[in-house]
Write a structure and sequence with these properties.
CATH class of the largest domain: Mainly Beta
Helix content: under 10%
Order of helices and strands: EEEEEEEHEEEEEEEEE
Strand content: 35-45%
CATH topology of the largest domain: Jelly Rolls
Number of helices: 1
Radius of gyration: 29 Å
Structural class: mainly beta
Largest sheet: 9 strands, antiparallel
Number of domains: 3
Oligomer: single chain
């Protein structure tokens, strides 16, 4: 049912079903010169698509749900668990019975997605983007003061989405965690219940330019009879010389040293190193593992 009377009607134009239960009312120029499109719906309605594309539509033939997908949908009853105040872009084949959408693209010469995420203005646009098989901003995309270091995860409902990488994967920052104020990236490696040397507790490849890094470790000997070991960092400095740094640790009583021996935790003392571009930083443990079990962890922060 369509009604139109631009002189006397309020609203001036309406599109509704024959029972006048659902449809749209248009109010031209009523709010800040904007045209309002008001949705008429019933309280118990499922998600309502504002705009549906039938990719196989032929003129003179009714639209076919099997070849259609929703572009913009309102979900007031939170059917998809995004929230009852959410406008949904796209369709996974449940709003309509069609094939759904596999991607949403934005063609722009200089798009800064962080403006939408943060709701504010950032003076210098970054290189943020949404990449294939990722949620949030692409891993490694840089801003003037930080880099997003985000792991990928399978897409699913909000409750099912894994927001962080597994510990030890060197991609441990959660989806919206950022390293700010000079920290460019953070990598982490952890192994538990070890009884021998670890050849690669953490490995990181330096980018296209030389970088400044802060490295620190942590160890906890959970069972101990005999043994002593160290945690080392192998890297290539800016003169292209291979170096091996032995990290310092503090016992709970404040005693400093490089030897990790005896039951209990050993807290790492940070060290700063400068590394040549396109080389690898590797953290390892070595020593005498006569009879002990330990957990070890290392964290690497790129400062510049």
């Amino acid at each position: 049912m369509v009604s139109y009377d631009e002189i006397t009607a309020t609203p001036a134009f309406e599109i509704a079903d024959p029972a006048l239960l659902r449809g749209f009312s248009f109010y031209p120029g009523t709010t800040n010169s904007s045209t309002i499109m008001a949705l008429a719906r019933q309280p118990s309605d499922p998600p309502i698509a504002f705009f549906i594309i039938d990719s196989g539509h032929i003129f003179g033939v009714d639209w076919q749900p099997a070849s259609s997908f929703a572009v913009l949908t309102y979900d007031p009853n939170n059917t998809f668990l995004f929230g009852s105040d959410t406008i949904i872009l796209g369709d996974n084949g449940t709003i309509t019975t069609g094939p759904g959408l596999t991607r949403i693209a934005v063609l722009s010469p200089n798009l800064d997605i962080s403006l939408a995420l943060l709701g504010g203005t950032i003076p210098i646009p970054g290189n943020d983007s949404i990449a294939t098989s990722t949620i949030g901003i692409q891993k490694g995309a840089s801003r003037p003061d930080h880099t997003h270091n985000i792991s990928t995860s399978a897409l699913g409902t909000p409750a099912a989405v894994a927001l962080a990488g597994a510990r030890g994967s060197s991609t441990v920052l959660p989806r919206f965690d950022h390293a700010h104020k000079g920290v460019v990236s953070i990598s982490d490696g952890r192994q538990t219940a070890q009884t021998t040397a670890i050849a690669s507790l953490l490995a990181f490849t330096v980018g296209a330019a030389d970088g400044l890094f802060r490295i620190q470790g942590n160890a906890n000997i959970t069972t101990f009879v005999a043994g002593s070991f160290n945690m080392t960092v192998t890297y290539t400095d800016e003169t292209n010389t291979s170096r091996t740094l032995t990290l310092n640790f503090s016992s709970l009583t404040g005693t400093l040293g490089i030897a990790i021996t005896g039951a209990g935790p050993f807290e790492g003392i940070p060290a700063v190193i400068r590394c040549k571009a396109s080389t690898t930083i590797t953290v390892a443990t070595s020593g005498t593992f006569t009879s002990l079990t330990y957990n070890a962890e290392a964290m690497l922060e790129q400062l510049a």
